[in-house]
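Data card: per-record layout.
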Amino acid sequence: MYQLNRFNTADGLQLQPIDIGHKDYIGVISADTAFWALVRKDQVSQVLNDSPLLRKYHRKLGVFSEEIKTLRTALKPSAVYFNPTDRCNLNCSYCYIPRSLRKNGKHMSSRKLLEALKILKTYFKSSLPKGQKPQIVFHGAEPLLNKEAVFLAIDRFGQDFRFGIQTNGTLLDSQDIEFLKSRRISIGLSLDGATPYVADRLRRNWGGRGVSQKVIKAIRRLRGYDNYSVISTVTKENMASQVKMVEFLHRMEVPTCMLNPVRCTLINSRKYKPLDSDIARHYLQALDRSYQLYQKTGRKLVVANFANILIGIIAPLARRLMCDISPCGGGRCFFAVSSSGDMFPCSEFIGIKKFKGGNIFKDDIRNVLKTASFKSVTQRCIENIESCHRCAIRHFCGAPCPAEAYGMNGSTETRGAFCELYVEQVRYAFRLIADNKTDAYLWDGWDKDAFTTFKMR
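The structure for this 457-residue chain is written out next.
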C-alpha cells in the first residue's frame, strides 16, 4: 500500500504535500468534500487557527457537500458504449475482452442495431432534459468489422445522438474517414508507440503481425481534424517510451491523447502491469514534455486522462471522464450494450457474466439500472475501501476501476491496480496549480460553463 504523508486537523482538513521538492506551498484538503486550498508553508499555522479562509470554508461547507453529493449520486445516464460486434481483427495481449469472444463472437445485424437505437432514443427522451443530446460510442472489439451497420445507424440517427467510434484504425480507409469527418463523428484510434518496434509488441493481428503502420496512416489522413484522439495503453513493454510517444503525437498534430495504464481486469493483462513507481516516473516526464512542446510551438497536445484529474481538482462538476470518482460513471452516467443486446455497467465488464443486468431487447432500461449487477458498481463507495477511506485525495482518484478491482481481488469494494500513480498525478496537478500552468494542460474553453463556488482574494 502506498502511504501518504498527511496530517489530519480537527476541522476535517488534511495537509497534503504538493510534490517532492516544491518549497512554497502545501495543500490543505477536505477529503469529504474535495475542497482544497494552496497555502504558503510559512503561513499554515495562521491559516488553521481561525483564519478568514477557515471561517469562509465553514460557511460554504454545505455547498461543497452538496456539490460532491450531486457528482456522486445525482447524475443520470447520458451515454452508451455500444459494441456492434464481439469480434476483433487483432489479438492484443492485454485485451479485457475474452479471446473466445473476439475470435468467435457475432455481429449485431443492421436491423437489430437500428432497433436498439430506437429503444435508446425513447429512453433518453424521457430521462434527459429537453435539448440534451445523448452520446453513442461504437466500441469494441472492433466496430468497423460491422461497418455497414454502424454507418447506416449514424446516418439514420444523426439528429438524435452524438456519435463516436473507438477503433484500432486498421480498417479505416480514406472514404471511411471522409464519411466520419463530414458528420463530425468523434474518432478514437489506438496506438501504443511512436515506432513499430514499440507499438507492435503487444498489438498484433491473429497472424502475429504488427499493425502500427496502418494506424499511423490513418493518423496522417486525420491531420487537421479536431474531433479525434489517440489512446495509448501503457504497459511495462512501452512505459519508458511515453516521452517519445508525446513527441510523435505532437509532431503529427494530434489534438488529444490518452496514456492509459493497462487495465488488469483479466489475468493475461496483469503480466504486462508496470510497477507504479516506474510508470509514474515516465508518465510525469511525458507530461513535462507536453508542456515544453506547447511552450515551443503554442500548440497543445492534451493528455486527456491527466487533464480529467486536473479538472476534477479545479472544477469537480466540469470533469469529462467519470473513472476518477467513486462511484464511477459505470451504470450511472453511461452503460454498455453488447452485440447480443446484453447490458453491462461498463464495457470493462463485458465478458463477466455476473455483471449482466439485462438485455436491451427484452428488459426495460430503467429496471436494468436497478439490478444487483448494476448496483454493485453504482453503489460502490470509496469510503468502504480499506486505506482509501483515510486518503486525502479520494475524490480526485476514485480508486478505479471496479472491473479491475473485481478481476484482481474478487470484489468491487477494493482498490484497482495503480494507487501510487494516481497519488503522483494529483501531486503533480497541485504543483501546476501553484505555478499557474494549468491552462497549458487543458482543453481550450474547458471552463466555458463553469462557475465559481469559492474565492479568496
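Known properties of this structure: The two ends are 38 Å apart (CA to CA). The first strand starts at residue 7 and ends at 8.

See the next section for split statistics.
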